[in-house]
Specification:
The structure is a homodimer of 346-residue chains. Chain A has 346 residues and is α/β, with parallel strands linked by helices. In chain A, helix 4 runs antiparallel to helix 11. Helices cover 48% and strands 15% of the residues of chain A. In chain A, strand 6, helix 5 and strand 7 form a beta-alpha-beta unit. Chain A is globular, with a radius of gyration of 21 Å. The N terminus of chain A is likely disordered. The longest helix of chain A has 35 residues. In chain A, strands 7-6-8-5-9-11 form a 6-stranded mixed beta sheet. The first copy, chain A, has a 5-stranded mixed beta sheet with strand order 2-1-3-10-4, with helices on both faces. Chain A has 2 domains: 165 residues, Bacterial extracellular solute-binding protein, family 7 (D-Maltodextrin-Binding Protein, domain 2); 119 residues, Periplasmic binding protein-like II (D-Maltodextrin-Binding Protein, domain 2). At the A-B interface, strand 1, helix 1, helix 3, helix 9 and helix 10 of A face strand 1, helix 1, helix 3, helix 10 and helix 11 of B.
Chain lengths: 346, 346
């Protein structure tokens, strides 16, 4: 190691504005953008600063894609599936029902061709997308009454996000779009019968357990749910190569760390919820199987009419089949055994 | 975004030497150190360069910890469990039998207190440790004859690394320490009866399938296997804060990417091996259960005589119990269902 004499160099001072789709109270998700900003600032000696605005501060939560596209903000932190109204293809960047788990999603993006496909898709929105966080498999949400059979889903008014809505609609559920802060009163009054949000740590903060007794798992519409930073392409291209690298690597760090946060924080939150009377219930095989069929039927319908969806879905589907083949061998047999031993000790 | 006029700043030119414990032919693992070097170089505008040496080029594969401790090299890329001869506690940084899977290991390190515990342990070796890669659950290795019962393990001469050796020794296996390049001829001649290495992609390159027919899973001694970069502490402290951050984040990127590489590359390698006649076999419940008991007995023995082991093990064990409790709910029930549907379609 040789420390050469200091030399003069030019590094521009750059300040970006990031619009988050999340409130500060969601410390796990909102926090990932803060981690990115801190790391980028440190790595560039304070030259590249990203100022973070919570949902609604400069742009509405669901207006962030348009704001990045137009250059109103430099970048945003959001979940692709909030924008399925524009195109369901956005959901591949976050979650599609019965999709990839967190590790498989990473494999698809970094080595399985997914990043190239998504970057091509996002070009139409002037966006350079960078993965930044994952929640892992979410919970299936809070229900005022037990749901055991398909019959119990008929007419069920449920707040649900992403492609879980259209999938469950095929089974008779009436999906509701309700912003985070409005869910609790709707569930309390019985305006809705059920809601899903994220998992024990985030759900506990919204207090759903006080107005709904049954907590179902798994959230099969979010086997993993990825967050991303969407950067205006022109702004991204204007960055010095050094700052681009610092941003990409800071996002990788935040991506790893957010998953770790959930995997740790959910444990004690789940314990507290169960201790306070929450009844944990697995979805029945009847419901899961019907939902799975409905999901893949929906994907075929999208493929028939949406070439952008079809292009990604065809590659994604083959990738998923491959991953399940390999995971079944080493990874799953290890997990299965470890869990079986642990259960037998209880 | 405001681009200020260029200003002069001082950024030292630093060149480090990294000793890898791996040959260049292990492109997945060796490649992770190359990714770190590339990213760090780019993020610092070429000022911080890390030159990588393959195993044996400047330091023997297993001499890298001593070389970093002494400052012979600035850092190394290796797996902690190669150094259990110094102290079995090293293994927590890589893998211990029936330990954490890849995601749980990340959770332990980044949010579960593991990083702090390991950094304290590594201080005694003048090392600042940074996670840099994971293989996921490995395969259980290649066997010339089927192993069905505990009786089949008695006297079995097997090349096995890490704490898998002492665990299997409790079941009558005779563990052998053989360097990568010497395994094939030993297995061919029958000097050993079995060997484990990594997984389909790496194992295929060494050709074990040509001299052993049975390929077992899972490698229960490596439910995940983490690689790390160990940096000489003084050298780390001498780095400008910017470079430290660039290094940390580059390692996070490489950490993510290596897991993705394995999850993708193992698929087709496994297909090719099976097509060429390899017989896949799951370890029997009898063998897995006995090995699990042997492992936790060994850990108790270490705890009784090694305070460094005990300090980490006590915390780690509680963390593992917690993680299994939570993963069983959402994550595993999702994986179980997806795999069950996929299998029923075959």
């Amino acid at each position: 190691a040789v420390a050469a004499p200091a030399v003069a160099q030019t590094a521009p001072t750059i300040k970006w504005r990031l619009a988050s789709s999340f409130p500060k109270s969601l410390d796990t998700i909102f926090g990932a953008a803060e981690v990115v900003a801190q790391h980028v600032k440190t790595a560039t000696g304070g030259k590249f600063e990203i100022q973070i605005f919570a949902a609604g501060e400069v742009v509405p939560a669901l207006g962030v894609v348009d704001a990045v596209k137009d250059g109103t903000v430099d970048c945003c932190h959001t979940a692709g599936y909030y924008f399925i109204g524009k195109d369901p293809t956005f959901a591949f960047d976050a979650a599609i029902p019965f999709g990839l788990n967190s590790r498989q999603q990473n494999a698809w993006l970094w080595e399985g061709g997914g990043m190239e496909l998504l970057r091509e898709f996002f070009k139409d929105y002037n966006i350079h997308n960078i993965p930044c966080g994952n929640t892992g498999t979410q919970m299936g949400g809070w229900y005022r009454k037990e749901v055991k059979t398909l019959k119990d889903l008929e007419g069920l008014k449920m707040r649900i996000g992403g492609l879980g809505g259209p999938v469950l609609a095929k089974l008779g559920v009436v999906p509701q779009q309700i912003a985070g802060g409005d869910i609790y009163p709707a569930l309390e009054k019985g305006t809705i019968d059920a809601t899903e949000w994220v998992g024990p740590y985030d759900d506990e903060k919204l207090g759903f357990n006080k107005v709904a007794k049954y907590y179902y798992y798994p959230g099969f519409w979010e086997g993993s749910a990825q967050l991303s930073i969407y950067v205006n392409q022109k702004k991204y291209q204007e960055l010095p190569r050094e700052y681009q690298q610092a941003l990409e690597d800071a996002c990788a760090y935040a991506h790893l760390e957010m998953q770790a946060r959930y995997d740790v924080k959910n444990v004690n939150a789940l314990r507290r919820l169960v201790a306070a009377g929450t009844q944990l219930r697995p979805f029945s095989k009847e419901i899961m199987t019907a939902a799975s069929k409905a999901a893949f039927t929906l994907y075929d319908e999208y493929s028939a009419k949406n070439p952008k969806w079809k292009k990604i879905y065809d590659q994604w589907k083959k990738f998923r089949d491959d991953e399940l083949l390999w995971f079944r061998v080493a990874e799953k047999s290890f997990d299965d055994f470890v869990h079986s031993i642990q259960s037998s000790r209880r």
